[in-house]
Amino acid sequence: MPELRFGVLGALEVHVDGRSREIPAGRQRAVLTCLLAHAGRPVSPDVLVEAAWGEALPEDPARALRTVLSRLRTQLGQDAIRLDPAGYRLAATLTDAGEFTELVERARTADPAVARDLLGRALALWRGPAYGEYADTPLISTVAEHLDRLRRDAVEAHASALAETGEPAAAVAGLEELLVEQPFRESALELLVRALYHAGRQAEALDRLRAYRALLAEELGLDPSPALSELEARILGHELAAPRTATAGPPAWLDTSTAFIGREDELADLVAAVPGNQVTVVTGPGGVGKSRLAAESLPLLHHRLGLPISVVELAGVTRGGAGAALAAGPGLRGEADAGTEELVEFLIAVPHLLVLDNCEHLLPELAPLVTTIARRCRDVRVLATSRHRLGVTTELLLPLAPLRLPDPGTTTGSQESVASVRMFGDRVRRLRPAFAVTADNATQVGELCRRCDGLPLALEIAASRVATTGVHEVLARLPEDLAASGLAGVVDWSYRLLGESERWLLQCLSVCSGDLDEPSLTGLMRHIAGASVEVDGGLDVATALGELVESSLVVRQHTGGSGSGDETSGSDRYGLLEMVRVYAADRLTESGRAEAVRRAHAEWVREVVTGIQADWHRADGADLSVRLTRCSAELSTALRWAVGAGELALASEISHALVRCWHWTPSPAVRDLMVEVAEQGADRPDPSLAPGLAAGAFIAGERGEVRRAVEFAEAALGSSSDSGVRAAARLALAVTAMYAGDIPESLRHFRALTEGPELVGDVHSSMTLLACYADDLEAAREHAAVALTACAAGSDHELAFARYAAGEVRARTDPEAGAALLRQAADEADRIDAEQVGRVARIALFALLVRGGEHREAVTLGLRLVSDLRRLAAWNQIWTLLRVLSEMLASEGRSSDAAFLLGAASGASGAPPLMGGDVERYAELQGRLSAHLGKRVLEQIEGLASGTPRNQVLGRAERLLTELDSTAVPGADGHAPGASSRLRRW
What we know:
The chain is mainly alpha-helical and 986 residues long. The protein has 45 helices and 13 strands. Among the domains are: 264-399, P-loop containing nucleotide triphosphate hydrolases (Rossmann fold, 3-Layer(aba) Sandwich); 412-496; 759-833, no CATH class; 839-986. Strand 1 and strand 2 form a beta hairpin.
């Protein structure tokens, strides 16, 4: 077959074996364009006939189409167009559009200089509107518009790369052309203004801002975004650096209670470096104190930067998990597979200092992630620790050397001023207060520090031994060539001094990803013993733990808690530093018992989770949620091992127990693994895998992955007769249909669930909401009464959900009583960590406040919701919030702002479908806005809103709420704020 290449970024171009081939205008050209627009996918004959003839069909459409295709094959080659069962397709689709898309995608993670060149090549491919004369035809327009959006985004990205590489003047022309096309594209205007300013054309930059302000006011009745207003002020002050705001203090991270010795200069250098550099990397060998230095710097950096600080501990993160770990740092709870976009959007809106600890094993993943953050989030600062540089163009390296060592033969007084000796002495005195460096031991202490190579962790381990046996004894047993093997040699030396029981416990601890309390470790070791892999003689966990802590091989931390019971009232928890974990894991592998221990660990996790799930309907919800959250790292480890080892039945049991802890939300990493368990079991008619299928269906449904959710759930129903599994699968189908807006299908599944004993409360709570959407208040009240009765003596989580549903229906006839129930549901959800219930209850309360004229309380609640939902990346709920906010803005006479938010929500792909009375409510609101603004202005505002990045839309909403808060809006009834006491607390 000849080599074919097509050009669609402009009028259609065809090259066959490198030579241009003219395709006649008319039906051949229309059919070929339609095939190209479908990018190699089959196109049905009916669609091709419509493309060629429109409504003026020939007498025999099928025959006429074959004639057109025959002529095209003559031009392109007989095998160029193939017939599949689903229709016709091009055998090869090498197009300039495909090349353009690939270049843009490569530019996303490239450094600025490379991105500039890639984007320049990509934009040079354009010769006119995509698909030329067919761009506006019904069958082509969607694809053409998508390409055009990519082109406009690429123009902005190219301009940004030009500015970053010192060519701001070169960025101006492309941005000017883009603004001719879309005069209200604020992101392009901001880039243009910055480019003009940095090119020395400050007066022109201000003129452009003022002209845009006037255009926006005259045409749309809007003010510029807060970002543009702030930019104008900074240009006037000749300062474009972003202002800093005070934030909460730095997070507790490492234990910094011990003296920080010998790093005064390094600490000063680090604190001076981070504010002026987007990426700062502390490098050095393992055990040199990189993490401790970073931890010590945080209070000082917080004071200087004024940024929120998020610490991301990467030591336990496995390959492929860097993106999810970074997103979890600032507390984002979006899906792990959502890429970096949600994190970037969040950091643009809320800049942070990101601390990335122990990066060395994830460098190929982290480099592009950090590059993207540095390029797009100018106000974010990244502080990383790693044994090696990240490989990011903008990184500043701060190598950290071991502590200074004493010279051989120095006197006691001289040695005491040397950093390594000072630290060693301090650590010994913590365990043995009478210890001192004297003339009798100074030579031995100096030699011991030199053998430890000045590495702080090695000195800590040696000090723990000296406190027990003395300097002379430790030095006699410490190998003379220890410095050659570094910290690993010190760990090995300390390990060999342990008893058999302590060695075994340390090995078993290496399979745990997080830290555990003593009862949990005892339970784990019981499972390992049951697997017949424990050493002879039994194991006293408490005694062995004490020895490991004293040897500095296990880290003990005291954690406070909430709730009641031993698990949550605060307890000592035990974990391993990563270097010790790796060493212990190697010893476990050498023993030949690693797989047996990992299996026992997974079986222990199953026991823990199934025990919590069994208590879910009886015990205190806060206690159970804390227990689940604390074992989240072990859940990931157990599921990952079970999937990798082919133990899908075990993984399915863990996954199913988790999903039956209704209304508790696992971490994104755990949710991904639950879906993977279902994916691997989907094609196997094995009843033992059905629990995992039902659980995966529920997670997929909550994500909006309708096809996968239905596939998993139906496979579970088809292979299991277990009532609990079938109920979970049926619930997944019901919830999936509800989220998709298919109320009849959702009701069908919920009604089927009412016939069994499972999930009575949740089923009737959900049916309460569905009846509300259908405005069937009598049915809604009946379901709410059943739900509250069923949940009264059951799960706290289900009761909170039932109160929320009851609040929704009660608010229809008695807003004050409904608000009380919604408040109660939200408070209870906070106590038991039922995030989803708390969010929906507060959004319902926000809507009730707005529609009841209680705007002052609504504004305060709205600001809290914006902050919470942004952190959670809960965009489906954000769009619901913005719809309701548009109602309040319209009632306050701010029609343009209302139209902007409503237009953004209406055009957002992730916005939930309108149901029930909301369909009429927002249609009526749009009609009022059209009447007030005029249809043309409304359409322009909606176009502006749909093209505005969603994080900017949310930023505008937050600014509007802040403005309303500062002006103390009265309610819609004209009364002063606070005239009603209906909703004082939320």
